[in-house]
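Here we describe the complex-level prediction in full. Unlike the single-chain runs in Section 2.1, the two entities below were treated as one system.
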Amino acid sequence: MRKGSPDTWAFAGAVGVVLLLGWLELRRPGGVSIARISGGLLTIDLLIRAGIFTIILVGLNLLMGYAGQVSLGQAAFYGMGAYFSAILTVKAAVLGISPAVARAWWWPWFVMGGAAVLVGVFSFLIGWVILRLRGHYLAMATLGLGIMVYIVLRENLGIPQLNLTGGFDGIVDIPRLHLGAFALWPESRYYFLVWAVALATIVLGLNVVHSPVGRALRAIHGSEAAAESVGIVVPLLKAQIFALSASLASLAGSLYAHFQAAVVPDTFGFVPSLELVVMSAIGGMASIWGAPLGVLAVLLIQELLRTHVLGLIPAVTAEMEPVIFGALLVLIMMFWPGGLVSSRRRRPVWGER
Amino acid sequence: MSEQGLQTTTGDRGILLRPTRASLQRFGRQAALVAVIVLVGLFLVGMGHRVGYGAADYLQLLVDGLQIGAVYALVALGFVVVYRVTGVINFAQGAFVMLGPMLTITLFGSLSGSPVFRLVVSALGAVLFVAAVGMAIHRLTLHPARKASALTRIIITVGVYISVQGIALIAWGPRPYVLPAFTTLQMVDRLVEVGSIIIQAQTFWIWGVAVAMLVLLALFFERTVVGKAMRACAVNRIAAQLMGIRVDRMATLAFGLAAVLGAVAGIVLSPATRPTYDMGLELGLKGFVAAIMGGLVSFPGAVVGGIALGILESLWGGVTLAGFKDLFAFLMLILSLLFWPQGILAGKGEGGS
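The structure predicted for the assembly as a whole is:
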């Protein structure tokens, strides 16, 4: 980020909002909480989930909006991170990890980092092979990969006797995170951790976008042949960004596991992958700021539908939610394809018009 | 190895046949394909041997695979028709597969008269209605957004699918339904025993209807003006427009045709399964995999892809853990993207046009 650029101001604003909301929740001055101010719409729970999704979305926007590669299986990496954290903390004994290590405060952090690295390497290898193909091949391959990972998680990794993933029921009693003796719980504390990571991810994303790598990515989006001709190693760069986005999703998954304290495979299936794409599209794919805005917009729409709109109309049940959600998605894509934050308006990318 | 892969060079020692890079790549791909087939075959036989399978068991799995494979082929054709004319991967295809049987069952229950009459009228009515739905979806959502990027339009079809499935949940609820078998016109189907193999009578209906649809489709594309116009749109949209073809109408018609194919597939399959509001997701995705296996632009490829997927999946499901049956299709998706991205029939027929 450059000093005094719009991004810097936006970032300062975002930090301010995050701190203000966190302070409100931590202090509850005069019994006033975020939930009460917003009429039950914004809860600390929703804000934490928004932070977790923001981490995934920054990676996804880099991949989809900048590199122009669609991932229809991003929830798989999210799930891999969550399950790495869950299995290695809850089922450490089954895997022969000594209890002294597994109960140390740094162990979950170590697992979280290790998972992000492993998932990154794994996705780099896959991306390296698949991204040599042009067009929407990655989208199709990630669709397949996403569903495969979901099935493997659901079916106990194929070794039912160990019962590592807990099948359909998932894993419960995942421990909360600690920094030494300081517990990052209740939610008002965890909120700060999640949003610190989310804001750091946003900075990372902005720096990538404004670096030579970001310009190379946009060049790939514009024309792969042209990008290659100016010396960009297209498959390598695409695989790197794919790996980065997968690592971020894994990190978010670990944070989710320690937040929810339970993981079930259905959170990481095909439909959640689609929801991530929807969030990205609504926020604006070709924008890092689109990530938090898209996440908040989708979560708020869902929450509004659930708590307000559906209750007001008689004879309309909660089952209307997917109908309205799908219709909204179609309408936004039809009339507002750039999303909430459209980079096209601010600065046309060379060669796109 | 084909002749195109060999480059003729005239050197001192006369004419040399030197393999080009392309031909080496093709050879590598073919070798990989053979290796994959051998490995999968060995795996199937090995796993089958472990559970004590004989020839009859394999034949039974083969027949079961041919049954579902015919359905996948029809669904895959729907993907191909829409992709060739509009360039969109239509994820709403699964919605047509679900709407067909659900509407047939509702109509069947509300009509009076002989069961044959009710079945024929309700099936025809349902197919026509779904065709209208398909065309309406195109007119209302994709036609206004025809200038948007392919990704935006694909997301629109995802939104349509979510909405339609949501409406189906409201209309029919989550419970499974039953359509009477075409032969007995009752809930229980007749079983045909050939040696030690048991075939549901409905299976013959599925095969018969699938073949009839293929013949009709071939006649439509080869013999009718509209069919030829549609093929022209697929080959070159602008040239077709210059010839006076209303490309937009052809796109709408393609959606109608895809809807008919999907609905018919769903209807003939449903007496052998129990249709639910969410059956479209699985069948839609499997049909998509079959279409990809066939190269996404080739009609013969889609049929071969569907049948191959059905048979292989059935064999795989017979010898592996029950929960892993669905894994196969998506494994196939990634393998076919890697090894034969142009489809398994690449280079034969009008495939890549």
